[in-house]
Design goal:
With 310 residues, the chain is α+β, with helices and mostly antiparallel strands. It folds into 2 domains: 7-249, Fido-like domain (Fic-like fold); 253-308, Winged helix-like DNA-binding domain superfamily/Winged helix DNA-binding domain (Arc Repressor Mutant, subunit A), CATH 1.10.10.10. The protein is built from 15 helices and 7 strands. The protein has helices at 7-15, 19-30, 49-63, 70-87, 94-102, 108-125, 130-140, 151-156, 169-183, 194-200, 202-212, 227-249, 253-263, 272-279, 283-295; strands spanning 32-38, 44-48, 215-217, 222-225, 269-270, 299-302, 305-308. Strand 1 (32-38) and strand 2 form a beta hairpin.
Length: 310
C-alpha cells in the first residue's frame, strides 16, 4: 500500500521543521515525469515515479496469485456494478438488482445497476475506440439520463475535458479502467471488487481527485500532478486483489496479505509482534488472526513462532 500523504500535509510538517517532510517534497519535485497528456488549460500532466512505479511492479506480482473461476467473474460484475452505482447515489439492494435482471427494473436506481452490468460485458467484449466509448456511455445511462441527445458534440470536442458527459461519468470511467486492463491482458480484473473497495474509502477517493485537479506552477509552465489519484487507485487495486485472493482461499484480507508476504520466503516464520507490526493491528488481534490461520491449516505453531505450511 502506498497510503499517499498529500503535499499540503507535507508542507505543513516542513514549515514546522520536519526534515523528512522537506526531503520528501524535494524528491517529489525531482522525480516528476510527464505522461504525455494535457489538462483543460494545456497544463502538463505529471506523476512522481518513485511513488507510483514500485507499486505497479508489486501489483503485477500480486496479480499472479489470482486463481479465479467463471462464477467469480459473474458474481463480481453484479456486485461491483451495484457498488459503482451506489458511489453515484443509487439506493437499492443486491436482491432488487437480481430481480430486475430477471424481469424489469422497477426504479431508476435498479436501472442504474443493470445498465452498469450490461456496460461491463460490452466493454470487455469490444475494443476501446471513441465510437465504442460513446456506445458504452449510452448503455450506462439508458433510461436514467435525460440529456443523452446533447452529449454528441460535447463528447467529440475532446475527452481531455473533465466530465464530458451530462451524467454517468464516474460509472463509465470505472468500467473503462477495467476494460483497458482487460484488453491489455489483465483479464482477471473482471473478478476484482474495485468499486466496492472505492466505496469502502470514498473520502480518500474524492480527496485524491481534488488534489490531482489542483493546478501547480513550475519554472516555465503550469502542471497537474496526478500522483494522488494514481496512488489511490493503485491502493484500491491492491485491496481488490487481496480481497479476491482471500475469497478464493477462504481467508480474510489481513490473512491473505500476511500469507502472501510469508510466501516470498520459503519456510518463513512470524511472531505475534511482527504480525501486528506488518498489519498495523494490536498484538491481541494479531494473536487471534494467527491462531485462526493455524485452525484453517495455513500455519503451524511452534512455541511462540508461526510457520507457513503452504
Amino acid at each position: 500500500m502506498i497510503n499517499y500523504i498529500s503535499d499540503k500535509i507535507l508542507k505543513i510538517k516542513a514549515n514546522k521543521g520536519d526534515e523528512d517532510a522537506v526531503n520528501e517534497l524535494m524528491l517529489r519535485a525531482l522525480y516528476q515525469e510527464k505522461i504525455g497528456l494535457k489538462g483543460i488549460d494545456d497544463e502538463e500532466l505529471v506523476y512522481v515515479t518513485f511513488i507510483v512505479n514500485p507499486q505497479i511492479e508489486k501489483l503485477k506480482e500480486l496479480y499472479t496469485q489470482l486463481i479465479l473461476n467463471k462464477q467469480a467473474y459473474q458474481d463480481n460484475i453484479v456486485l461491483d456494478s451495484f457498488h459503482s452505482a451506489t458511489i453515484e447515489g443509487a439506493r437499492t439492494t443486491v436482491d432488487n438488482v437480481v430481480n430486475a435482471m430477471k424481469d424489469k427494473p422497477k426504479t431508476k436506481d435498479d436501472q442504474m445497476v443493470v445498465n452498469s452490468i450490461n456496460a461491463y460485458y460490452y466493454a470487455f467484449n469490444n475494443l476501446n475506440t471513441i465510437e465504442n466509448l460513446l456506445e458504452l456511455w449510452k448503455i450506462v445511462t439508458k433510461d436514467v439520463c435525460d440529456n443523452q441527445d446533447k452529449v454528441g458534440s460535447r463528447f467529440r470536442t475532446g475527452m481531455v475535458y473533465i466530465h464530458p458527459f451530462a451524467d454517468g461519468n464516474g460509472r463509465t470511467a470505472r468500467i473503462m479502467m477495467a476494460s483497458i486492463m482487460h484488453h491489455a491482458g489483465y483479464d482477471k480484473v473482471g473478478a476484482l471488487p474495485i468499486s466496492r473497495c472505492i466505496n469502502d474509502r470514498l473520502s480518500r477517493y474524492y480527496n485524491s481527485l481534488e488534489e490531482s485537479e489542483e493546478v501547480k506552477k513550475g519554472a516555465n509552465s503550469k502542471y497537474l500532478d496526478i500522483t494522488p489519484f494514481i496512488a489511490e487507485m493503485l491502493d484500491v487495486l491492491e485491496l481488490a486483489m487481496l480481497s479476491a485472493i482471500a475469497s478464493q482461499n477462504g481467508l480474510t484480507k489481513n490473512e491473505s496479505m500476511l500469507l502472501i508476504k510469508m510466501k516470498k520466503r520459503k519456510g518463513a516464520e512470524i511472531t505475534v509482534e511482527k504480525c501486528a507490526s506488518i498489519l498495523e493491528i494490536t498484538n491481541s488481534s494479531a494473536k487471534n488472526l494467527l491462531q485462526g490461520m493455524v485452525d484453517k491449516g495455513y500455519l503451524i505453531k511452534i512455541g511462540n513462532i508461526y510457520r507457513s505450511k503452504v
